[in-house]
Amino acid sequence: MVLCFDIGNTRTACALYNDNVLCKVFEYATCETVIAKEFTQKIIREMHQNLPQIDGMAFSSVIMTKNKEYLDLANELNIKKVLKISPNCTLNVPLRYDLDKLGTDRIANIEEACAKYDKNAIIVDIGTAITVDVVKEGVFMGGLILPGLNSAFKSLSKDTNAIENIEFDIPNNIIGNNTVDCVKSGIYFGWVSMIEGLFQKIKVSYNQDFTLILTGGFSQTLSPHILVPHTVDKMLTLNGIYRIYLNN
């Protein structure tokens, strides 16, 4: 059994793989402290069985202060092979990028998208931040980073008295008839249009067709209104982490 972690800004996802088969996925708040005894009980509850033998572990983290917790977890569970995803791992996709600042979740997305879908791919990861990554002919060319939906909504509500303390949800109509609905619609449909527009602009920029892949917590939320052909793969990052683990 191999444990894979995608440690994000807000949520952490954990997947258990056994002989290339995904067995279980569960999530928890990234701010939770990971303690071996409590975590093993979490696995037992999720798996509805005794603790399986865990031989390997891989993790991608955008929160550097959490890395030691997961290395300590691996040590306490006596896991033999532990891999922290980084640009120094054996990768199939060359990276044309300043590697000091490249998020390891993006590396996992790039590897999985190129192997599973297309060597010409645009990957949009819609989470706390939105990352747009471009793979052209099997080479990572770079991308864009934008604030996510919740981040934008919270920022606007913080500075706008009329909508403070309002939670974001999917608007019923593109045109709102009150201030709160106008803000929700502006952010939701604005982000939908932004993804469509960036996809088209990148295609024109490279004079190249691309496969559009959406992942991340809000990918299924935005997908119904994105009119360009695309694929939603919420497991892209975790499967990419596992793929890199197998290649190292």
Could you please describe the fold and organization of this structure?
With 248 residues, this protein is α/β, with parallel strands linked by helices. The chain folds into 2 domains: 2-84, Nucleotidyltransferase, domain 5 (2-Layer Sandwich), CATH 3.30.420; 99-103 and 114-150 and 177-234, Nucleotidyltransferase, domain 5 (2-Layer Sandwich), CATH 3.30.420.40. The chain has 7 helices and 10 strands. The strands form 2 sheets. It has a 5-stranded mixed β-sheet with strand order 3-2-1-4-5, sandwiched between helices. It has a 5-stranded mixed β-sheet with strand order 8-7-6-9-10, with helices on both faces. α3 (104-116) packs across α7. The longest helix is centred in the last third of the chain and has 28 residues, at 179-206. It is globular, with a radius of gyration of 19 Å. The two termini are 16 Å apart. The model has no long low-confidence stretch (mean pLDDT 90).
Quickly describe the structure.
This protein is an alpha/beta fold.
| Tertiary shape | globular
CATH topology of the largest domain: Nucleotidyltransferase, domain 5
Question: Strands of the largest sheet, in order across it?
Answer: 3-2-1-4-5
Helix content: 25-40%
Q: Rg from C-alpha positions?
A: 19 Å
Helix count?
7
Q: What is the count of β-strands?
A: 10
Q: By helix and strand content, what is the structural category?
A: alpha/beta
- CATH class bucket of the largest domain: Alpha Beta
Largest sheet geometry: 5 strands, mixed
Average pLDDT taken over every residue? 90
